[in-house]
């Protein structure tokens, strides 16, 4: 039905969540609060998490509507109720203190399911006084948002699944390039990263990356990791390099590269460090939207900015700018509105600080203290929620040429079987019917692929028209011409020519094929006979005669004579050639006849007496005509009415006898008739006298 030719392919990689950023528009915090970024202005709402300085994670649907949230200890639905199977995570642990202990990863296999990863770590009262040693395992539970009447619940049998142990506090995610999401973790007491690929098959074995400046007891024990907006960098604060007096470094800021194709972490750069474990350690960290600035928090001295666009590592470190010297600031987080918000340990909070232009260098970043009024009833504590990442979408753009044959209805089929479809008219089916030329497009996608197919639909120029049914007269002909470029032809009489000459009645049809298109047409041809008129032979008329030429009136013909006269009869009064044009069913024929005149009188002499006495003079009665005669007859009667003589030849005469004997002297009567050479009928009557 259609011909499709792929002209070009353009492959791109698009961040899986970029097309649906509203899924990160709801922030929930571990202490009775949340931000909604769906409108033009940030709004606040209450949550059910309380009593923890830990991190939190939340996820919304494509329209920005909250689905669920968690602090790693419990999972709440959108109505702020703990899910039926969402209580007692981490084997019933009741308190969490770490900033990035929970992260949400969407299932690649099922868009209604999410992995909730969480990790437990050491908890301490004050520096140097370690107690309440918790396990350091990485767990996950799977949430299905269709369960519990659409409010969501933890899938039975997929709760508190242990991945591994020996982890530090930080969890962060990256979109993968192979239909996967990376969960990046850091091991405690060592400089080892583990990156887990979450695919449609589940959680894979980790990719190990041994990189970083520190190792040994307490190294990376408590750390914060954030991904850059372009997913190529990891910013990390190492809160506890060492708590031992006399150690060179107590806390540090590091920068790493991350490969979203392989999960490898590398290229560690030491941006800054602190020599003393004095609770002025580095804690919160995040990147500016354009990834040129790195922001880090020292708990006791405020927020600092580092210019990553500086040419050398030394220059980056030297670019350190004190954005704010506020005390007990915690994490910093880049929000969907493009601003960076600053958390705090102060409880309760009256307001939240904000960096409104984080791409700006130095003071141009525009730090605003207490930019968000919290009314003293909430705290962001140590952490902001982790961004939920979706896999990179392999994005392909294809162009197709599609040719419509005449009167064809074609179906454009989306070449790629996605989960969702969108055509140019907002149709959402895999196929689209077209009957006219134009440009049509369809987008098809699933979690990991986005394909755009553009169809350039043209209509074949093949057009076969034999015309309307036609009638013409015998002796005429028409030429049927369907010539087209690069076409083949087949007429119903077997001809393969592009033209056909027609001079007979019949139905004529042709099929013309050009490429994959075939067009056909049929014409009925009627050849009418010429009208036939009989004017008779040429005639010679007698002077003063009037002749009438009469033609039929019941044959449907019309007539027009040479002088414009119309009608079936024509009166001839003089010599000449007379012509008539007869018309019947659109056909005409002309006929002619010659009419001549001449004198038609034929004088006949017959004596009024004769003497049949044998003297050789006037012995016979003769009629003498001045013209040729035909059908001559003469009858002679006596006075009693007796027929005494009949003659049939004008050259013969009556010898005056009756029944062989001389007739009596007296008066006799004659009747004479004949046709003259002019076709004139001549009749004469008279009397004669017989004398002896």
From TrEMBL:
Keywords annotated in UniProt: Signal
Pfam families: CHU_C (PF13585)
Cytoplasm recorded as keyword: no
Keyword hit for Signal: yes
Signal peptide boundaries: 1-20
Xref: NCBIfam families: Bac_Flav_CTERM (TIGR04131)
Name this protein carries in UniProt: Gliding motility-associated C-terminal domain-containing protein
Lineage: Bacteria, Pseudomonadati, Bacteroidota, Chitinophagia, Chitinophagales
